């Protein structure tokens, strides 16, 4: 190859993923002219502390001066791997206004300010690529934006948080309780010291907001997503789910229906035969349904140094190709519709319920009456262990609107025969 051009890029952040991207660029150095049409050089790396040595990264590349990056005309691509909202938001906007292509893995930023960022993409005729924001190394953003664009998509559903999937896998496969599984996840580095964003569903909520925005061509923000975590899931829930032929997973669910779009994150019983039921440990998977493709699933490692760096690297190669061919900015904002985002009380599901009731005649009939009066039909009911004058009822309902099940449970909580509502988990289908 003659006269191979060199494209210079800057990294914002040199943490786990940033370090992985730098190493991968160096590893692919000899291949990039053939894959991308140019040499790629990481010429600067923005960090907070330039005196701290980063293994595998030359110290001379480090800088704490953002202006030296954004004002450098030779730097054509800015790769943001800092995380958080600010200053990442400001840096990306300034980079685009300076005529640079941007790549980000920042799910928090995209879920909150995706509309503002995409407006900047359109105004500045540049690329903003963000494959690594959802699913780590799993290709899902590109398929949704391009490969599946010929479909009317009706469902995007997935396991998009490795921490919670690891915890639930250990609870299911090894009989651990929640606290024990969380402790092991923390020890192995899957869970942060403060696991709230993972176990309460916030991380998954941001990712499903991004995917729903693309799939349904309407802007979905994190604030639109109902989130419910796994902290209340018990060994008993896992055991009973198995008896009924189900597996419990924390799922991000986005569905388009005639009356609007549902976007939610919560634990769900899914049939043991469903492809997502077999996704265990820290793996992620996204299941998509379209009118033409029917069902498709994407599975792989959802986090980590090189899986996430792999997704960033794919975006980098795309950005370089577009620069070489003079076609940057060809895929802008696809949110050209404004669909109704349904509040959670208007969504419908089947429900798995565990109730502790007084072990006496007429208790089941009384409970069934409350459900019937609130439009809740019972699909299956099993009476489990009896002890201390109480019995445990395990109930699966037919499909019913969320507000109706909530109304019924509120009434049941006030009845003397109902000692405790031990659990409520939605059921896929």
From TrEMBL:
Every ACT domain range: 352-426
Molecular function terms, GO-annotated: homoserine dehydrogenase activity; metal ion binding; NADP binding
Binding site residues for L-homoserine: 192
EC number assigned by the record: 1.1.1.3
Listed cofactors: a metal cation
Binding residues for NADP(+): 12-19
GO biological process: methionine biosynthetic process; threonine biosynthetic process
Enzyme class: oxidoreductase
Biological or metabolic pathway of the protein: Amino-acid biosynthesis; L-methionine biosynthesis via de novo pathway; L-homoserine from L-aspartate: step 3/3; Amino-acid biosynthesis; L-threonine biosynthesis; L-threonine from L-aspartate: step 3/5
Signal peptide stretch: none
Reactions catalysed according to its record: L-homoserine + NADP(+) = L-aspartate 4-semialdehyde + NADPH + H(+)
UniProt xrefs under InterPro entries: ACT-like_dom_sf, ACT_dom, Asp/hSer_DH_NAD-bd, HDH, HDH_cat, HDH_CS, NAD(P)-bd_dom_sf
Active-site residues, record numbering mapped to chain: 207
Binding residue positions for NADPH: 107
Claim: NADP is one of the keywords in the record: yes
Residues annotated as transmembrane: none
Family: Belongs to the homoserine dehydrogenase family.
Record NCBIfam families: PRK06349.1
PANTHER family recorded: HOMOSERINE DEHYDROGENASE
Record protein name field: Homoserine dehydrogenase
């Amino acid at each position: 190859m003659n006269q191979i051009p060199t494209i210079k890029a800057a990294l914002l952040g040199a943490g786990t993923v940033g370090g992985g991207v730098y190493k991968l660029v160096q590893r692919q150095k000899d291949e990039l002219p053939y894959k991308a049409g140019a040499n790629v050089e990481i010429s600067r790396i923005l960090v907070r502390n330039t005196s701290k040595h980063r293994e595998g990264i030359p110290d001379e590349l480090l800088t704490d001066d953002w202006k030296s990056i954004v004002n450098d005309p030779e730097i054509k691509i800015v790769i943001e791997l800092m995380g958080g909202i600010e200053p990442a938001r400001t840096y990306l906007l300034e980079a685009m206004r300076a005529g640079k292509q941007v790549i980000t893995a920042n799910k928090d930023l995209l879920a909150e300010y995706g509309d503002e960022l995409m407006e900047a993409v359109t105004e500045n005729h540049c690329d903003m690529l963000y494959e690594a924001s959802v699913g780590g190394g799993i290709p899902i953003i590109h398929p949704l934006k391009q490969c599946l664009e010929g479909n009317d998509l009706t469902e995007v559903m997935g396991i998009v948080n490795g921490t919670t999937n690891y915890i639930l896998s250990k609870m299911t496969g090894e009989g651990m309780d929640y606290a024990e599984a969380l402790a092991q996840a923390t020890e192995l580095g899957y869970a942060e010291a403060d696991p709230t964003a993972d176990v309460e569903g916030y991380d998954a909520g941001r990712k499903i907001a991004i995917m729903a925005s693309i799939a349904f061509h309407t802007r979905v923000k994190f604030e639109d997503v109902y989130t419910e975590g796994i902290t209340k899931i018990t060994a008993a829930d896992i055991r009973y789910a198995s008896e009924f032929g189900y597996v419990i997973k924390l799922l991000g669910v986005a569905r388009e229906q005639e009356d609007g779009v549902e976007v939610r994150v919560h634990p769900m019983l899914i049939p043991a035969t469903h492809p997502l039921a077999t996704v265990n440990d820290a793996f992620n998977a996204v299941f998509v349904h379209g009118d033409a493709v029917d069902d498709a699933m994407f599975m792989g490692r959802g986090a980590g140094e090189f899986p996430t760096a792999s997704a960033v690297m794919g975006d980098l190669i795309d950005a370089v190709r577009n620069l070489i061919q003079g076609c940057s900015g060809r895929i802008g904002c696809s949110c050209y519709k404004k669909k109704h985002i349904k509040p959670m009380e208007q969504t419908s599901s089947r429900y798995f319920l565990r109730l502790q009731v007084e072990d006496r005649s007429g208790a089941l009939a009384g409970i069934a009456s409350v459900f019937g009066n609130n439009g809740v039909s019972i699909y299956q009911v099993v009476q489990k262990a009896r002890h201390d004058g109480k019995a445990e009822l395990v109930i699966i309902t037919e499909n019913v609107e969320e507000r109706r099940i909530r109304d019924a449970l509120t009434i049941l909580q006030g009845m003397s025969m109902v000692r405790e509502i031990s659990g409520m988990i939605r059921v896929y289908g």
